[in-house]
Design brief:
With 492 residues, the chain is α+β, with helices and mostly antiparallel strands. The protein has 3 domains: 121 residues, Homeodomain-like (Arc Repressor Mutant, subunit A, Orthogonal Bundle), CATH 1.10.10; 167 residues, Cysteine proteinases (Cathepsin B, Chain A, Alpha-Beta Complex); 134 residues. β8 and β9 form a beta hairpin. α14 packs across α16.
């Protein structure tokens, strides 16, 4: 689940101080920069859980680690997590976990690192670990006079297929439903998502990572994905004058023909999601959305027994920006030459609408990180948290993108004998670029200690080291770009 930056900052502070004998709400108030009353109201409204209750829940769940992996007595564990006596601890543990600490120690449920919010991790129970099957299921289509639902469309969510980029994940899921089996790395490179990097020169922008910034024409990048499947591509943007009725008609037409749609928005931010059906003549939409379990965005939706979201307020969400469809087979799929040419186009340095893109994005990123005046409020978690999210997005973008680009060129080297050496060199350059981003990530430490990460972000020597690694990543991307460009020119 994901919460506003201020709530995430509160969660980070709680995780960092979970073993304090007495949780210091006054210090939390000082560090976050809001009054105690407002912090409690904000936290309860966004999480559905009172702040004091949440702190107690986290203390109990974190204490479970000591029960399983240390020889500490229950008495010592109770005191370690700030409980005044073992009886109080036992009552709280039983109420929250459903068994006493001694029974928990004997039965040994599975515990480990769990995502508390996007980018914030802590100890949690893992005995209900979700699993996903890649087995293609026969299509199950439900139709009546006012709706059509395509059941069996694979789930699109963070981490599916080992990926972290929504549009290629949606492409992969749609391709499976349509009876094809494309590798995730192929959807990454064929959509050009594997080669992208964008940085807003005007501010620390959380939308840097959004794929629609990749090229100057928003729908061009999505058209690459349709070409990857060798299918017809149709696109409807929410331009001035475009109505809800036009959106509904577009969706209904394609769903009725048996093709899932990909939309931007519907629930939450304008990230790609899959529309798998509609009810009530299109007033209600169903599908998979990366934010459908996020309480910040999903308060007005229901979950169908299939797991699909059911949303009737999709048009009221102003982040619902476009809908598109990969329709009937329409000729040859994208060629390797086209993938490489698109990669060169995306990697080439340029500035468009205030965004530095491709190779030039590295310098803009480095300049923002090296601007010491941006990091003077080092004890304000809220200010630093947004910058940390931008930093994490950029690192994740490079890691997910360049690792999959390297996989593609390694695969290409096995079958393209005339360019085997060059493909391997490109793969090596992309792999080293991804490794540089991993080294950046390691400088910030374990993501379970977000407060520690924020302090390191505010620390100039750490940022200086990151800037050195940004230059390295740029160098490796530049090497790959030059090799890819030479391949295109040779083919021409």
């Amino acid at each position: 689940m994901s919460y506003p930056s201020s709530v995430k900052a509160i969660i980070c502070y709680i995780e960092a101080h979970i073993k304090d004998e007495k949780f210091n709400y006054n210090e939390l108030e000082r560090r976050i920069g809001f009054s105690d009353a407002y912090i409690r109201e904000l936290f309860g409204k966004n999480t559905g859980c009172p702040l004091a209750k949440y702190v107690r829940i986290r203390k109990v769940k974190c204490s479970a680690y000591e029960l399983l992996y240390t020889d500490m007595s229950i008495l010592d564990i109770a005191y370690l997590y700030g409980f005044s006596n073992p009886e109080t601890y036992t009552r709280a543990f039983n109420k929250i976990i459903g068994m006493t600490p001694s029974t928990f120690r004997i039965t040994r449920p599975i515990i480990g690192k769990k995502e508390l919010s996007v980018g914030v991790y802590g100890i949690g129970l893992l005995n209900e670990k979700e699993q996903r099957s890649d087995i293609f299921m026969d299509r199950n289509v439900y139709k009546n006079n006012t709706g059509t639902i395509l059941y069996g469309v694979p789930k699109a969510a963070w981490g599916e297929y080992g990926g972290g980029t929504p549009y290629p994940i949606c492409l992969k899921a749609c391709s499976e439903y349509l009876g094809e089996d494309l590798e995730y790395y192929f959807t990454m490179v064929s959509s050009a998502a594997a080669f992208r990097l964008v940085w807003n020169t005007k501010c620390w922008d959380l939308s840097n990572v959004d794929i629609f910034h990749t090229l100057s024409e928003t729908n061009e990048i999505y058209g690459f994905g349709a070409k990857a499947l060798g299918r017809e591509f149709s696109f409807l943007g929410r331009d001035e004058g475009v109505t809800k009725e036009e959106f509904m008609e577009f969706i209904k037409t394609h769903i009725d023909e048996g093709y899932p749609c990909i939309a931007l928005g519907i629930i939450g931010p304008p990230e790609p999601c899959i529309i798998t059906g509609y009810k009530n003549n299109g007033e209600e939409l169903l599908g998979w959305n990366f934010f459908q379990n996020d309480p910040e965005f999903a308060s007005n939706i229901e979950i169908d027994e299939s797991g699909y979201f059911v949303c009737s307020s999709w048009w009221e969400n102003t982040d619902t920006q476009a809908v598109m469809c990969m329709g009937a087979i329409d000729g040859e799929k994208i060629s390797n030459d086209e993938i490489i040419a698109n990669g060169v186009k995306v990697l080439t340095g340029r500035e468009e609408y205030g965004y530095c893109k491709g190779i030039d994005a590295y310098d803009a990123w480095k300049n923002a990180l090296g601007n010491d005046s941006e990091f003077t409020v080092s004890d304000n978690l809220f200010v630093l948290f947004e910058k940390m999210l931008c930093q994490m997005d950029a690192m994740s973008c490079i890691i997910d993108g360049r690792e999959n680009a390297a996989k593609f060129f390694r695969s290409l080297a096995e079958t393209w004998e005339i360019n085997k050496e060059k493909c391997n060199r490109i793969a090596d350059a992309f792999a080293r670029c991804a490794e540089a981003a991993k080294q950046m990530r390691n400088l910030f430490g374990d993501m379970s200690d977000m407060e520690g990460m924020l302090k390191k972000l505010a620390d100039k020597p750490v940022r200086d080291e990151v800037c050195i690694l940004i230059d390295k990543a740029k160098m490796f991307d530049s090497e790959a770009l030059a090799l890819m460009d030479s391949m295109i020119k040779k083919q021409n």
